[in-house]
Amino acid sequence: MKLIDGKKIAETIRQEIAGEVKRITGAGGKVPHLAAILVGDDPASETYVNNKAKACKEVGFDSSTYRFPADVQQEELLEAVDFINRDPEIDGLIVQLPLPSHIDNQKVIQQILPEKDVDGFHPVNVGRMTIGLPSYVSATPHGIMELIMRSGIQTRGRHCVVLGRSNIVGKPMSLLMARNEEPGNATVTVCHSKTQNLKEITSAADILIVAIGQPEFVTADMVKEGAVVIDVGIHRVPSAKTKSGFRLIGDVRFDEVAQKASRITPVPGGVGPMTIVSLLLNTLKASKKEIY
Ligand code: NDP
């Protein structure tokens, strides 16, 4: 078994991005700029936005955060998105989700110009990805495709089983693996909560991508000998063995599945570190006008 080291791959990509920023600015080009809209004071959202700003700084991007109180009116948010859409200094805009319940998430997302939608959530980007046009792909599936590509995993003609069909992970993953491009060109089966004979299907997978949101759901008897296993899940569970009193686990029972898999992503250190890096890659593409 060989680990797919997301932490190391993410670091390599960060260095590549930082080098590219130096090259662009050295030639008199513009510094890439990512803006974030943050509503309310949810500590997790605050942390995510701060981490994104920190990651921007590390690679030489500019970043700005537009903060609004939890009781902000939807109209005001839509106006803020319009304002950022018109600002030529800003290349990419993300809206930190979830938004308070009185705000319609889709309305806000659809207000973002598709060419600045570096989270890849706008239906125009989702649609373009679906029909194989250049688009921003959302961070987690984008990161997984980078992991697969940079680990030299062959996908063409192989049977890929995607466990989960959410809009942010499972669904785009299945489309990307089935696309007529490399990586891609896999034969894809999508499984969900209504799937019957799940074990039979997962046991036939050459590549098993698990985004089910159930701690250690996938056990060794569900995996084919020599399969590639990508674990998207992330769960915080209590632990007496760590200083912090908790540890992170995935949707896959790592210890036993690692005995059978040829390649596997650990949790933490697999898919997770790729997420912010994917956002940086999309912002760089936006500043270079590579997609639109
Ligand atoms: P969702 O809860 O939105 O989707 C879970 C999917 O799994 C659904 O399609 C659901 O089916 C399916 N499912 C749930 N239970 C079963 C079951 N018993 N058998 C078969 N299918 C089942 O989750 P997400 O896609 O948002 O996230 C999945 C996991 O990935 C979570 O642990 C999340 O924390 C993690 N995650 C990690 C990220 C990272 O950066 N590492 C980023 C995003 C998510 P149905 O559609 O029928 O309900």
Task: Give the structure's gist in a few sentences.
The chain has helices spanning 6-26, 43-59, 74-86, 105-111, 123-130, 139-150, 170-178, 198-202, 254-260, 272-287; strands at 2-3, 33-39, 62-68, 92-95, 159-163, 187-191, 207-210, 228-231, 235-238, 246-249, 263-264. By secondary structure, the protein is α/β, with parallel strands linked by helices.
General description of the model:
This protein is α/β, with parallel strands linked by helices and 292 residues long. It has 2 domains: 29-113, Leucine Dehydrogenase, chain A, domain 1 (Rossmann fold), CATH 3.40.50.10860; 139-272, Rossmann fold, CATH 3.40.50.720. Helix content is 39%, strand content 16%. It is built from 10 helices and 11 strands. The protein has helices at residues 6-26, 43-59, 74-86, 105-111, 123-130, 139-150, 170-178, 198-202, 254-260, 272-287, and strands spanning 2-3, 33-39, 62-68, 92-95, 159-163, 187-191, 207-210, 228-231, 235-238, 246-249, 263-264. Strands 1-11-8-7-5-6 form a 6-stranded parallel beta sheet, with helices on both faces. Strands 3-2-4 form a 3-stranded parallel beta sheet, with helices on both faces. A two-stranded antiparallel ribbon has the order 9-10. Strand 9 and strand 10 form a beta hairpin. Helix 1 packs parallel to helix 10 (272-287). It is globular and about 55 Å long. The relative contact order is 0.17. Residues 140, 164-166, 168-170, 191-195, 198, 211-214, 232-234, 251, 271-272, 275 line the site of NADPH dihydro-nicotinamide-adenine-dinucleotide phosphate.
